[in-house]
Structures are given as C-alpha cells and as structure tokens.
Design brief:
Elements lengths: L1 E5 L3 H12 L4 E5 L10 H6 L7 E4 L8 E4 L1 H12 L7 H31 L5 H21 L12 H10 L13 H5 L1
Parallel strand pairs: 1-2
Antiparallel strand pairs: 1-3, 3-4
Length: 187
C-alpha cells in the first residue's frame, strides 16, 4: 500500500495519474495547504521541503517502507518499481528523463508563477504578469514543437506526459490560448 499525500494541484495530480495508470493500491492522505498542514512536524518528517506531493510506500525497496518527496523523484521511483512508463533503452529513457526535468524545472514553476500573478496576487502588477505570461507562452511553444510529429512527448506515453499534462489543464489562468499551439491541443 502506498500513502499519497495530496492536494488538488497539478503537482499532486501527476502522482495520482501514475498510481492509477500502474493500478497500484494507494490511499489518499489529504493535505490542506491553505491551512498550512504541509508545515506540520508529521508532514515535514515525510517531505522535508514542506511541499506536496509526497508518498510513503510501505512495500519499498527490500520490503521496507520508503518516504519520497518531489514529484519527479516519485514518478521515477514508481516507474522503476513497476517497470512502466519509463523506457528501458538508454536513448529513449534519457529523452523521457530530460522532458521530465524540463517540466519539473521550468514548465511547472513558470506556469505556477503565471497563475499566481494573474489570479491570486491581490495587487495587479503588470511586470510579473507580463513576464510570466510571456514565459508560459514560450514554454508552450517548446512543448508544441516537441509534439510536432508525436502522439506523446517522447513518442510513447510516459511519465513526462503525466508530469506535464496537469499543468496544461489550468491554461486560462496562465494567459495561454491553446489554439496558438495546435500540437499541444491535439495532444
């Protein structure tokens, strides 16, 4: 059994997608991030960075429990545990890993900032709104180009797709029109 420490955000959704795709037994442990539950000592013992998602796999390596934080690390762990959604041949494996880290290091954080300044920040600040909306659109163009002749980001459905797709869902808050990115729209 895997405990999934979850809040309904794109990062939280990545892991629930993977758990469902792999047909793994798990239970959701809701974390109310608006109330600051991610900073409680019990949660910080599992996720020292104080962010969701996090998991505890009670049947980890050598049958011992393992706690993991950070969505990319969790996706890699689950892919290796199940032998699914991360190719075994080196070239394709590294292609998936580079697009997973692209999402984790750029696509998600920049879209999160666009969302924050366009929706949640009370004061309307033109510079950050324009900067992060422009960066969101630049990153969508990168994704659109990657998907030019592919059904999925790296050819086959993988953890790179699972990590990226939840960030595309709230696009209207990022200042993005999918009609401008036909390959992303098709994907």
């Amino acid at each position: 059994m895997i405990d999934l420490y979850f809040a309904p955000t794109p990062n939280g959704q990545k892991i629930s997608i993977m758990l469902e795709e792999c047909d793994l037994d798990y239970q959701v442990k809701p974390v109310n991030i608006a109330a600051g539950q991610q900073f409680t000592p019990d949660f910080l013992a599992i996720s020292p960075n104080g962010r969701i998602p996090a998991i505890v796999d009670h049947e980890g390596p050598d049958g011992k429990p393992i706690a993991l934080m950070e969505s990319a690390a969790i996706l890699l762990y689950l892919a290796e545990k199940t032998g699914q959604f991360l190719p075994s041949d080196s070239a394709t494996r590294y292609d998936v890993m580079q697009w997973l880290t692209w999402q984790h290091g750029g696509f998600g954080p920049m879209l999160g900032q666009a969302n924050h300044f366009n929706v949640y920040y009370k004061e309307r600040l033109p510079y950050p709104m324009e900067r992060f909306t422009r960066e969101a659109n630049r990153l969508y163009a990168v994704l659109d180009k990657q998907l030019t002749d592919k059904g999925y980001m790296c050819g086959e459905y993988s953890i790179a797709d699972m990590a990226t797709w939840p960030w595309v869902v709230p696009r209207k808050f990022q200042g993005v029109e999918l009609a401008d990115y036909p390959n992303v729209l098709r994907w």
